[in-house]
Design a protein that fits this description.
three-stranded antiparallel beta sheet; 8 strands; globular; alpha/beta
């Protein structure tokens, strides 16, 4: 696990999922989108009428929450909630905000920690999230802190949502990103921060191909691939 794990952390909308998935494909590694796992818990809270900001209410749901991750023939990571494929539903803009709230609860993070670590024990992984290099895989072979200006992240998120056929407004997305950044930085449990040994990669002025090339260069150099 320690030698073949790649941890990619960063704020919401930094392109972690897109770049981590593409990097995993190039290296032949397993891609693990931890954000999708937290989104699945957030969806469960929404469906059950629980307040995602209420730790007790969310904790009460965990015993009735079965989460499974699998990869289809399309190569996409599919998330299952109590046996139902919710891969598309968890990508709704509303669920993004709820995920940051449920992720702030220690009970949720403890509930999912072993699930995440087990993936790295069984596979060479590229794992992205908010605390992969600091908490989940502190001994990862490579750690990258991926970021971009809030305005650039909002533009990318808007394009992603519109491509999926979802309606959204740039101002609302930008406000959500700024709010989520503050929540992630200031939460008492596993706050978003750059690991001391992580490489900082700012993609504000890079397109997708440029960002991927920069990320791949960092990883290959660190792992001597």
């Amino acid at each position: 696990m320690q030698q073949r794990s790649i941890a990619i952390d960063g704020p919401a909308g930094a392109g972690k999922s897109t770049l981590a998935r593409a990097l995993a494909q190039r290296l032949g590694y397993l891609y693990v989108d931890t954000g999708a796992i937290y989104r699945t818990v957030a969806l469960q809270a929404k469906r059950q009428g629980a307040d995602p900001g209420n730790a007790a209410q969310v904790a009460d749901l965990l015993g009735r929450t079965e989460i499974r991750m699998a990869y289809g023939t399309d190569g996409i990571q599919h998330m299952y909630l109590n046996g139902e494929d919710v891969t598309r539903e968890i990508r709704a803009h509303e669920i993004s905000g709820l995920a940051s709230q449920v992720a702030a609860h220690p009970q949720v993070r403890d509930f999912l920690l072993e699930f995440q670590r087990s993936q790295a024990r069984d596979h060479d992984v590229v794992m992205d999230g908010r605390d992969i290099g600091t908490v989940v895989l502190p001994q990862a072979g490579v750690k990258v802190f991926l970021t971009a200006a809030p305005e650039a992240r909002a533009q990318r998120r808007l394009a992603e949502l519109l491509q999926r056929g979802q309606q959204a407004q740039l101002d609302g997305i930008l406000a959500d990103i700024i709010r989520r950044d503050e929540q992630d930085r200031t939460r008492p449990v596993a706050p978003l921060r750059q690991a001391e040994d992580a490489v900082l990669l700012d993609t504000t002025d890079l397109d997708l191909e440029g960002s991927l090339a920069a990320l791949e260069s960092i990883v290959r150099e660190r792992l001597s691939l």
